[in-house]
Amino acid sequence: MGLVLGDFLSLFRAEAAALGAAITWAVSTLAFGHAVRHVGPMILNVLKGMVGLAIMVAVLGVTGELLDWPGWRVMWLLLLSGAIGIGIGDTALFDSFKQLGPRKAVLLSTIWPFMALILAYMFLDESISGYALLGMCVTIGGVGWVILERQPAGKGHKGHAVRGVVMGLIAALGQAIGFVIVRDPEIKDVVSPMYSVAPRIVGGLAILIPYLMLRKQSTHHRLLMKRPLRLWGVILVASFLGTFIGLWLQQVANLDKHGHAGVVSTLIATTPIWILPMVALTGERVSLRAVLGAFIATAGVAIMVMDKEEAKKKVGDIELREFYCVMEVSGMVKSTRSIPGPP
């Protein structure tokens, strides 16, 4: 009695959403990598947030959720998550892109699942099995191996290496903290994944805009020069994918009660793997090492998903329940109560 497709998708919705977010962010990363060369990281983050917020307000207006109120505690948690994860974390990530280049910056960002795992263990009382930990290590190892080989030698931003590393670590920590905050059980019960994105964007903008106003910093002049329409187009596309689609998928993964913080965060961290085929489509050569690294990372994902104990238990419960039902209807047993249930 096989498990129906709907049950399977329900069990692994968090993992599917996490992978979707990773692929979406791979596309947006390439676009932001272009835009950050023309505007500063903080201004780019503000532009990204404003575009994303406008889209979210429109969507929530259509769905009728715009005026919903989840309560002060939930709202403050979402705002705090956005202030740390989006306001501080994304700005630091863009700065790391600028100082180190995309290869090293993305590599640094892959350490955030380990930070999220530690924080979830400390504050959410979440545990993780040995197999899941092994899977995370294999995935991160594959990602790191690929990214370390991405850029030819001699193209680094060595003059700002220390600042770039510090910004990368801040970005990873900010993302981990923001991720763990939205794992709060009350948030999962009262808000939808779509609704939870908007307050997080507001929280990020709430600390960025006042800071820029105090500094009296305006949009970089290059934004209005040298093909400004193309640059705006790149920012709009990247913001739509990264801020709207990507964050929504991340929230679907975060708020799914069957998802594990460590597993979901590691799947989201596979973004550098998905960048490789996109780069290959532009004509850049992808080496054998990059391909092998992708397989290693995929193997790590398989190890993690295989050890999802809750899914295995539910699969067994459903199949055994279907078996008992067929037996009872066929007259082979009088009642399922006479047969021991699953352990």
Q: So how many helices?
A: 15
**C-alpha Rg (nearest Å):** 22 Å
Query: Which structural category fits the helices and strands?
Result: mainly alpha
Major sheet details:
none
Strand content: under 5%
Secondary structure elements and pairings:
Layout: H1 5-11, H2 13-35, H3 41-63, H4 72-100, H5 102-109, H6 112-123, H7 130-148, H8 161-181, H9 185-190, H10 193-215, H11 228-255, H12 261-268, H13 271-281, H14 288-306, H15 309-329
In short:
The protein has 15 helices and no strands.
Question: Care to describe what's here?
Answer:
The protein is mainly α and 343 residues long. The chain has one domain (5-307). 75% of the residues lie in helices and 0% in strands. Helix 2 (13-35) packs antiparallel against helix 11 (228-255), helix 3 (41-63) packs antiparallel against helix 10 (193-215) and helix 6 (112-123) packs parallel to helix 8 (161-181). The relative contact order is 0.20.
Question: Can you tag this structure with a few keywords?
Answer:
single chain; 343 residues; mainly alpha; 15 helices; 0% strand; disordered C terminus
